[in-house]
What we know:
The chain has about 220 residues and is of the alpha/beta class. It has one domain (about 5-215): Spore Coat Polysaccharide Biosynthesis Protein SpsA, Chain A (Alpha-Beta Complex), CATH 3.90.550.10. Helices cover about 30% and strands about 20% of the residues. It is built from 6 helices and 10 strands, in the order E-E-H-E-E-H-E-H-E-E-E-E-H-H-E-H. The longest helix has 13 residues, at about 65-75. The protein is globular and about 50 Å long. The protein starts with 10 loop residues before the first strand and ends with a helix.
Amino acid sequence: MAADRPKQYLPLGRQTIIEHSLDCFLGHPGLKGLVVSLAADDPFWPTLAIAHDPRVQRVAGGLQRADSVLNALLYLHGNGASDDDWVLVHDAARPNLARADLDKLLDELAADAVGGLLAVPSRDTLKRADASGRVLETVDRSAIWQAFTPQMFRLGPLHRALADSLVADVAITDEASAMEWAGYSPRLIEGRGDNIKITRPEDLEWLRSRWDMQG
């Protein structure tokens, strides 16, 4: 992002990206609290007002996403959470989660045996490329979904899936992929397409312009 700080601390309106990403959860009556995984030497987090909110607990992040999530799950285990409790994992750089999507995820997965994630069906034509960047084939997009967060699973099975996949040195890109590797079939809950993860400067500019238009 060519910035002097991690992208989650860049400004978006009157708050940082990470503050917006957490706000949707802090304002929800059905959720008990938040655990944020951050680098141990992160100098930016303590400067935010949200860092001093008693509902938000901080744990050390890890080398990989799976390590950071595991540390958060271990904290929950050590502070009274049970294996059957639902946990939601969300990207710090995904600040535009709609409350309606969060409610939909919680409602539709409440009685699910596995859990699942917010996602959107692919709207674009997809191409499979070779090593030289030339098209090998057009992929049938009717069964292709783009995975978003939050991703919602029970604490015990998610902890075991992440821990076992790390021991097996399996490439895990999100919590759902760990659950898939462990033999589960997560459910896809269709959400809004504007629940984007900020990865490039144009993503942030798009959100800023959209929020400016809304007032």
